[in-house]
Amino acid sequence: MAVQITCRRVYEETSPQDGKRVLVDRVWPRGMRKQDAHLDEWLRDVAPSSELRRWYGHEPSRFAEFRRRYLAELRDAGHREAARHLRDLAAHDDLTLLTATKDVDHSQAAVLAEWLTGRGRSKG
Questions:
Q1: Tell me: the pLDDT tens digits for 95-122?
Q2: Number of domains comprising the chain
Q3: Is 47 part of a structural domain of the chain?
Q4: 20 to 30 A from 35, CA-CA: which of 13, 23, 46, 99?
């Protein structure tokens, strides 16, 4: 049976199908108390760099370029260990990638989910 990887907003109610719940944002979600997040881990080092996050600004028209740049960042030394750890988690457990972003489909969580399942492999 293959593991399931899903993306959700951290503000949504937990679900028995969540598996391991991992926050993949660099900054803590606004207005969220740590005990209310029900996280297994907070992997801030797998999140996009602050520079990339600011450039993207959650503009859907920039998503393709954001995705390309973010996948390149995941190969960099600063992200490599956290990315490897996330891959290890995904190999053994169902995984819910959490983000505070309103548009989950155009977020780093969506890029990570594709990357973890092999659908987000970049060329080159």
A1: 999 999 999 999 999 999 999 988 644 4
A2: 1
A3: yes
A4: 46
